[in-house]
User: Fold these one by one.
Assistant:
Number 1:
Amino acid sequence: MLQKKVCMLGSFSVGKSSLVRRFVESIFSEQYHTSIGVKVDKKVVHADGHDVTLVLWDIHGEDAFQKVQISYLRGMSGYLLVADGTRRQTLEDALALAHRVTETMGEIPAVLVLNKCDLATQWEIDPDREARLAAEGWRIFRSSAKTGESVEQIFSQLALAMFSQ
Amino acid sequence: MPEQAQRRAPVPPTPENHTEDQQALEELRHLIVAPEQEGLQQIRDRLDSMERRAEDVSSVVVEAIQMRREHGDDQALAEALAPTIQETLRESVRRNPQVLADALFPVMGPAIRKSISETLRSMLESFNEALEHSLSLRGIQWRIEAFRIGKPFAEIVLMHSLLYRVEQVFLIHRETGLVLNHVVAPAVATQDPDMVAGMLSAIQQFARDSFKSAGEELLGSMNFEELEIWLEASPDAVLAAVIRGHAPANYRLQMKEALESIQQNFSSALAEFKGETGPFRAAGDPLHQLLEARFVQKDEGRRKHRAAIIAGGIALAVVLGWIGYSSYLLWEWSRFLAALRQQPGIAVVSVNKSGGRFHVQGFRDPLAPDPEKLLSQAGFDPQKADLELLPFYSLDSVIVTRRANEFLRPPVGVKLSYKNGQLHAEGVAPPKWIAQFEERAPWIAGVNAIDESHLQNSDLLELNRLKGALESAVLVFPLGRTELENGQQAALAQGKMDLQTLLLLAGRLGGTVTIDIVGHTDSTGIEATNLPLSKQRADQIFGTLRRAGVNPANLRPRGVATSEPLRAENTEEGRRYNRSVTFKVAFSPAPPVH
């Protein structure tokens, strides 16, 4: 069985936990986030003819007061960069975080998730920005933890990206 | 070499020697190049010939494999050979399974036996524990504890009887925190090992970051209630043992050794780990060896001691019980014998005991109590005793009295008693029975004499009663008259009946009766008239009685006038009583026969 360590990164309250809650196996409570800053969950996806177990390290949201502990990211094969599409700043913060990751750990397969796409009227990310990011090489998904949109694809895409690495 | 130098010396070209030169050159070339050419040809032939090439490889293949292994690259070799070997095995099985089965047989047998015996041993161990603790006092205490705390009984038993048990062992890739292998002890509930291992790594990381540890040290252990997690790290792997209870310090040494060997055997697989856990399946054996359990040692010595005390106690109780029971039987028996000996009509001659049974020999009067009943009354099992009692006539006073009663059947009111050979009768009986008594009592065994002095004849008693009744009767006459006063007829009838009965009884008793019919007058009038008046009154009654059938021979009427007054004549009532007729009865019993 193939296993991969995958981290979920993003600002506070962008919906990382909501994203995984409905789609992954979980045995630990949310309290781990606030106590040690990480919660480990698991998801098995089928990609490229393989079953692969993604061990998801859901890292506590980064904000002005709390930086993500880079040491938690050691050994990861890929990561989901999650931003809240209704708050532009979260995208900027996420990209800054991605930059820091690349600086310390080198290029690692990642998927950018713009969450809360069900709230179309409050959407703050303009399509040009999105297109530019795609041109930079980002795999971008709009998702909604609420409707479940794209969630399965996000994990499959990340798995594929990790295989092609 | 000098020879070669000579050959290479220049020769001037001439037409006649041109062909010669050519030949010489050819010869020279042949001399110089031919050996190399032959060598080249041979090499070419070897390369072209499949057969030769195979031959060449076959001579070095073993050395090549050995060399490769010495270079420490056997993993790659194993990976390269694995598909072929797998295919070969599969083909071999397909062609003839027996070959491989025969080859594996010596290995499989012991392996299967070991696996079965291990499983059975651990099953028996836990079964023994459960059985012992479910029946003992301690087991009951633990049940109460389980109820109180709200935990399953099995867990409480484990808590008290287990020194420690290694329930799970994780082999974790150090950098990624991914599980390489995971083993679990039988019947242990586990969470998803992937997530647990990830979290364990996260906690390690957290501890390291929180305490700003500069190096790569690892937490040695974590405790949670009765669980401990022991961790050991090698450069690429972490070994985590989940232990219930407290493992001894040397268990860590075992962990270190296991991890070292894993690090050594899987060094390249660990270094190049990309998430494929397949190669680490082979690490299962050393991990399984780390799953171990130690139970609290039972104090065999004390247990044996206690068992001896219990056995001794039981034996003593049995002996004491037996002695007690025997004594009780003897006591019962002696009590019964005493009762038996006191029984009138039973004579015990000999008593003995043989074969656990009691024997009694003696005599018993038919009128004596049933000895079987006596046995039962004494609480003695009649089955345990043989009573051999021959019939006889007892001269015991109780039995003789009983026999006399049986034989004579005395009427109610007569009591028989026996003393010193004499049978006493006391009370009132009809003369007929008295006669029987006098006649038959001496026939009874044991009766030498009879005493009837206290026996009263009922006829005589009745006669005396009637005599009294008659003599107190007063038949009253009017003044100067010889006919009864009105209302005196009933008294006369009664007197007449009493008199007739009295005469009858006297006749039966064989005595003689004379009844004076005494006529009285009051003191009025003169004696000369009163005397005949009194006589006439007596005659009047006499006549009435005679007419009623009373034998006149027994009656003697007489007049006494006023000479025998019944009452003082100071009242009219007194005078009235004196104008009367009364009776005087004289009974002479028949003279005794003997």
Note: The interface with chain B takes residues 1-5, 25-28, 32, 36-42, 52-53, 55, 57, 69, 71-72, 74-77 of chain A (CB under 8 Å).
Number 2:
Amino acid sequence: MPIETITKEIRDTIIELGGTDAYKCYQCGMCTALCPWFQIDKVNFLVNRIPHNVKIGNVMASEEKEVIEKEVEELFRCVGCDNCLEYCPRGVNIGDVVRAIRRILVDYEVLPKTLKDIATKIYSSGNPQGEAVEKRNNWGKNLALPLFIPEMEYAYFACCIPAYDAQARKIAEATAKVIKLSNLSFGLVNDDVWCCCETLRNFGAEKVFKEIANNNITALAKAQIKKMIVTSPHCFTTYKNEYPELGSEVEVIHTTQLFAKLIKDKKIIPVKPLKKKVVYHDPCTLGRQNNIYEEPRDVLKSIPELELLEIENFTRKDSVCCGAGSGGLWLDWQKGERMSDIRVKQAVDTDAEILAVACPYCLIMFEDSIKTMNLNLQVKDISELLIESL
Amino acid sequence: MEIIVCLKMVPDTSETEVRVDSTGKDILKVRLVYTTNEADNYALETALLLKEKYGGTVTLISVGPQKVDEVLRMGLAKGADRAIRLTDDLFEKGDAWTTAKVIAQAISKIKFDLILTGCIATDDGGSQIGPALAALLNIPSAAYVNKIEIIDNVKLKVDRELEGGILEKKELHLPALLTIQTGINTPRYPSIIGIKRAAAKPLDVFDATKLGIDIKAIESLTILERMYMPKIEAKAQFITGSDDEISLKLATLVKEKAGL
Amino acid sequence: MITLLIEHREGQIKDICFEMLTLANKIASAQKKEITSVILSDNCQPIADTIKSYCHKIICVEDNLLQNFNTQIYLPVLSNIIKEIKPTVTFIGHTGFGTDLAPYLASSLSIPLLTDTFDIELSSDKLLARRQMYGGKINADITSKSLPAIVTVRAGSFEKIMTSSALIPNLSASITKLPFNINPAIPEQSKFLEYGEVPTTGIDITKSDVLIAVGRGIKEQKNLSAIEKFAEDIGGALACTRPIIDAGWLPKDRQVGSSGKTVKPKLYIALGISGAFQHISGMKSAETIIAVNKDPEAPIFSVAHYGIVGDLLKILPLLANRIKEMKA
């Protein structure tokens, strides 16, 4: 086949699947400088080349095995933090372009095996750990938490990570305890509602995303759940911004939004002091992508004697990603090449004793970096800090 | 070199729980992801590498229902030249013998130098079809091959992995059949060009009638009576006591389980 | 009649033969049948001597061409024997040799084949075999529609005949020697060249039956050598979690986990591993998991079969010594 035909075909296929933004790019390179990968010397991730390569159809155009392997690794590097989108002078949504490319590849099983396995596990048992469907609410049994019934006002969905992981479970437990103390009527979402699949959509497993999302919507409607509290910003963003076009009518509220409201309404009153220096990390998905910056801070500021710190120059919409989005939680980058290492170093430099997070992914990534780098810093979810004060 | 590669579509059960269905004769297939059998991917990669080195064509064959096309298209996207799907209810109901006979009938009409199959399928784990097929075609075969060398275009030198870290080295005369061990190479990803070209490559479908197959001759020789879950041991017994007591109990346990 | 093919390599009879003999004795006594062992070799007598108290008859075929296993050459010999004596069932080991030969043999005779079985039931007209499917997650019972049939037997499923209670007493096999004739074209089709050894650099931990995995709990690199020695002593391979790879103490091909390898060994010993889910997902299907960790809440204990809460650096030397004593 002549070269012109081949590359046009590649370009057109990507554009068709959602990559139109590639045409807006005029190669200023802002995205490359703002990408968190830019802060890691060993990694040379040229973000602006992505729209350029789409325009000339130079995506996975080689037929050489080694070249393709390297390219696949690079195409799954983007974690969807949207720092590029925040500052792009043309509003190019690089994330959309990357997702369009990934959709083509995933259809032919061209993706890192780790991610393929995650998709298989979620498809088969509703969670990325591959644990049994029925075990989703086991964490709640120890706290005698009821399942949601229509008479209740809110349902609580803990996210697969806290639900199934011994390390992150503390987030769900602390959150449930806080909500219980407020006397809000709530119950746990039943285990026929599976993973929100935001990660799957972001790494290109669109078909699986749609199938499970539709099942979730049906199950939630059947349970008559109208308002749902979620722990993960990823569940939050996908239910708020992506599920409605599939027919969902569920109103989502993030735990930090709920906590802030409960405190404001004096339904819960933080009294026990926590005399610690706490630096807050804005999760990309909660902050930059959904503009929720103040509520988490309001919650922290309401805790007596807590000193709230900020990471100068990299706060709020300039927050640096922990690296777990779009499948990053599962992929393994070499030591010295990890995004979360950058962020914890920034946190340590503020002299904080505690790094406060509002997302289970951030918790896992930062705890891991701290252990690997042997740093003197604790990671706590906002719910954990709050329950200690009530 | 004219190479034929046999591919099988299997459910990916490596990362999921597997349960028996209500008939007791099959697994619950409701939420399973289907993909190419792992060892077959290595066989296909072997064929593609040989094609790159010696020229010729690679033909894919698979027995199964229409959705098997996914596996065949992926193989074509990676660089195979044509694909053949053998689909018929009669084939589905059969055992490994049936499958071998059906593939043999299809291959009998094709000129070939080498047939490659995966060494084992992750669903039934029978490891039968490769050599059974070779016997039906009256060609020599070697199973669990992890190294291949072509000599003078008429002979193969192969390494087979045996137990205890021993290799067996043999020489086979072409035409021959090899079943390929996993890990022999690194299966490639298809390129986007490959994916686009795959749609235009020939994928022919044959049923029992079109194959001209004698139904009696492909009847199964075995019956799957039932499937059931193996016994599961209870979890997490804590071994307690003084360090000495613990080490003794532990040593006994390790000795038993490690087969010392 | 129950027949079994004696597997040998470089003059040594393989252990699986003693297991197949146990199976054969078990069935033969229940069904009042006789056992015939078949030896194809360049020197049958020493092998025949080893097994003659465990079967009724031995058929020997001797020739230099039979010295080393070769499906194409063994095939006509075995086919003729099976056609001649019409055994109800023929056992072949499910080994590197057996998986090469059995399907070819069964197919050329158009008789049923049941592979990789761990148990057999034979009644007057029915043969039932038990085997695993889906990577060991499911068991299946398969029957043969007709007899004779061939069965390949999984190693480690039966006791060796010498210690088994199934031994039929007072057996002393009569030996029959059959002549060897072969179409000269056949040895040209398929030639045995030589045996070799798998290169030891780059171990595939997914193929190891016993794995000793280390995590951050081992604290320092210098503690690794004692663990390595222990692993050798119990015939296992070293594996690890990602932090060990990061530290450069072990190569990447030893990593177990969602971004490393998924393993299913018979025995998995986790030392100083907390059990982060990325690691657990790579080993939770191991047959027996023993975990040692200082922290009683460590998530690894939720998948382990046996747990020890303690200091691995104290327990390991004691354990290693015990093993040495037991092996002596």
Note: Chain A has a mean pLDDT of 94.
